[in-house]
Amino acid sequence: MCYTSPVLGAADFARPCNKIGLTMPAAAKVQAKRPPVRSDAKTAGRTGAVRRERNCSVARTLDIVSDAWAFLIIREAFFGTQTFEAFRSALGIPRATLTGRLRKLTELAIFRQVATGTSQRKEYRLTRMGFDLYPSFIALMQFGDRWLSEGKPPPLTLVHSKCGCDSHPLVSCSSCGQGVKARDVQYRDGPGAGRHPAKNSRNTRRASDGGRFQLGRPSSVSRALQIIGDKWSFMVVREAFFGNRRYDKILTALEIAPNILTDRLSRLVANGVFRRRQYQNSPDRYEYLLTDMGMDLYGPFIAMLQWGDRWLSKGKPPLLLKHLSCGSDFRASVVCNRCNEPIVAADMQYKLAYDPTAFGALGPRSIT
Ligand SMILES: [Zn+2]
Ligand SMILES: [Zn+2]
Asked: Distance between CA 16 and CA 216 in Å, rounded?
């Protein structure tokens, strides 16, 4: 069984279809009674039983960028920062922490080290894999600009040098070129579908650690990641895109501790990603529906999915996406809303609404 995306379609329930081969969670259906919750889901967080996480390219991407320091370093690199001291100045990051993160990002092949002239000093340059994160950052930035600017002008305006226009990139279908909305996408298992034992370290990061995302220059990408960069929050939103909107269904799908799920749902409601709707009395039960803002996270999600598929899936994407509007399987493509050309870092210029030197940071400069 496969299912048509998410969330809140007609009658607020995802529409199942008759394709075969899916082990994904079934689309949300009206349920007469509370479904049973697997005991491992109830107890995994407390007993140390091994949780098994769904293979997910977005999660693989977020495993890297949800580490706030790693994210901030990559962001500064997109502004042209290349040296240890410049990263330190822009982020106020402790030396040992910066050394560790640069080493890790180099091991991950996001950066490569290059020698400069006769000096012993090395610089850090983004690799192709690193540059390819740029569209995901841009998609997150657009989301942050739209929803998290608190009425102020966005921190920066993008100018696309290919067309010379101010650009508000959008996430489009690689097949038909049209923008992609959550409701227009159908999923099925790809060759990399399945589950794997969960690593606990990142998952248990306290959501309050997200404040670190705001270090350094003002950034809409930071604001977006502060909401979903916490791994649990992200997975709860992902389940909503899969049509799981009830507490028990999400608990079962994610096999997480109830207190963590309760905490993340509360945060996501407070942040405007979900709204709560009562669907049962005695006892009172609620379901969690994505708001317009929550639905708008879909673009960044599939942009990050695309990156994870390309670089971390060994040619076996866990999930295949079909665009219902054109009937084709597709990849997410982040394109300029003016000229429709794919966004790459080297083609982008910036108009800043702030003075980067006030943050010890470099102004944007061309990067190659
Ligand atoms: Zn399409
Ligand atoms: Zn353009």
From this structure: 45
